[in-house]
Amino acid sequence: MENALPFFVAIPLGAAFFIPLVSLTLKWVPDLLANAVMAVLAAMAFLTIGQAGFYHMGGWGTHLGIDLRLDGLTTLMLVTINTIGLAMAIFSVQYMTKYTSKLRYYSLFLCLIAGLNGIVLTGDLFNLYIFMEIVAISSYALVAFGCEHDELEAAFKYAVLGTVASAFILIGIALLYAMLGTLNMAEMAVKLAAGGMNMPLTVALGLFLCGFGLKAALVPFHAWLPDAHPAAPAPVSAMLSGVVIKTAGIYVLSRLIFNVFTVQLVPDLFSILRLFGVVSMIVGGILALGQWDMKRLLAYSSISQIGYIVVGLGLGTPLGLTGALFHMLNHSVFKSLLFLNAGAVEYATGSRDLRHLGGLSRNLPFTANMSLLGSMAISGIPPFNGFWSKLIIVLACIESGHPWLALAAVAMSLVTLVAVLKMLKRAFYEEHKPLTVHATEVPVLMRAAMLLLATLCVVLALLVLTGLRTPFLIAPAVDALSTWAGTAPGQGMGI
Amino acid sequence: MNDRTQHEGMDLVAKAIAGWLKGFILLFGVYLVLHSHETPGGGFAGGIIIACAFILFTLAEGQHAGMKLLSKHAAAKLASVGALIFLGAAIASACRKGALGADHAGILLFLEKNAMSLYDLALALVVSMLIYVVFSVTSAVHVTVKDGQRKMFRQRRT
Questions:
Q1: Contact between chains at B100 and A147 (C-beta distance less than 8 A)
Q2: pTM here?
Q3: A464/A445 Cα distance (integer angstroms)
């Protein structure tokens, strides 16, 4: 399996550059090629389950060259990215016909996938930065894809704040390289464990917290997200909210905190993370209540759900990590589903303003049912997957002696329920409005993509059957975070 | 629109000088690419200079003449070819030596005796064509304000 690792990046990149070559004459190529590529990548991602290993680029050893690294966490992220990506590619076939240029869309989309796969695979901090820029630049262009007033403004805001984040991260990497003399993350961890912390390293850690906090849209840094995510075409919104903020933000942050800067070095780090998390959870949830734009409501709720994940990470216990990673997987599934629903509503009616919608459950029964399922999953109603991951996070809060965090998590779950019920009621269940009277159900491939994600919402709930503390797919990822590069798993990590 | 197309570009002096210069600039860019492996700069600098030749011509003669010489789509295709050469070289060396990019001497530098590597050729292609595409896209699209809403417009190709 190790030899297949670079192809997670090479295949989508190759396809992204192949599409412009032929697609002006052969209009069917982008659809077919992008879907085929995503299907192959998703299959490859599932084949990595249970595997581990290295790939040395160019045959150079770890000290000289660049490593690609496969472990439990990488597998979890690869499965998430490529499965959600497959659903988005299926959805895009018919949804993107209302935009002008499928060719450019699929090229950028595949670049995005290549960058995301690269971020989770690489073991080298500077390469991680490069892949992150690939992701960032393709998402700026994808946010601006509609070329209207809102899209351009959102993309500009996103580009400015994203570049600020990248600058923070680059300075942080430069400081680390100056102090440790290596860019390989595993070697960094060994050197840090031997040498301990000093002032420049602490500054670097602070820069990383701000930079990746911006990428993940934690609350003091969240201003770009509610503009950027709604402005993009629906599949891209789903990718951004479902996968990009988690890969470029949460994944890298947890790799750095748990694997590179191990916990013994910075004991206060976890209380900072918990603070970020609980503030994001509360602020995002409450701001979501007041929104009238369907996608904007979902974008604010993403901030709130990212808060849950960061609280789970900030607990630092194995159970907390399990909850955080499980919630990350679940959130990418149901948030993508909800964004696709919003896209379907927009496709059918031309609007996503809740004040102008209503009664769509009679015109779009399939979309309405999918929305109901996604909403129940996100607000933690059993038996859907969201319930189990939130339950694990709440249990972990109580177990590690933070009853107030547990209370906040439960309360914000209710607030999320109120927000999504508002969306459901206004869009699907009230009286018809002029805009919605003649709406018809969306085409079959769009429904297929929604069905795929809805099925996942139910199937992922079954993961807890393999053990609440050691769910399938999640437990290896938690192991990877606690024992990487030979560093000991943190015992009672700073709590 | 037609009135503008006929009088597009700069005045006669600029057009005449740009017409003379573009060949020399292009030649210098190609020279840099051909000697890229043994001179400082190499493929990237050569690519930039090649792009400059096209950009100079477009600035002097106007957009429609520039598009006629090398359209955005053709340039984007050439850039894609360049990127695919990179990928092809990496995969070919994986087939020969077992790891992506491992076959340094065999594939990447197969033209080493001519002082140019495949890598530099691909780099020059990508850089020159992408710079030209960025130039022509940003110069062909303008944002206007109408009823307080900004909108992007594209000039029509004639």
A1: no
A2: 0.90
A3: 30
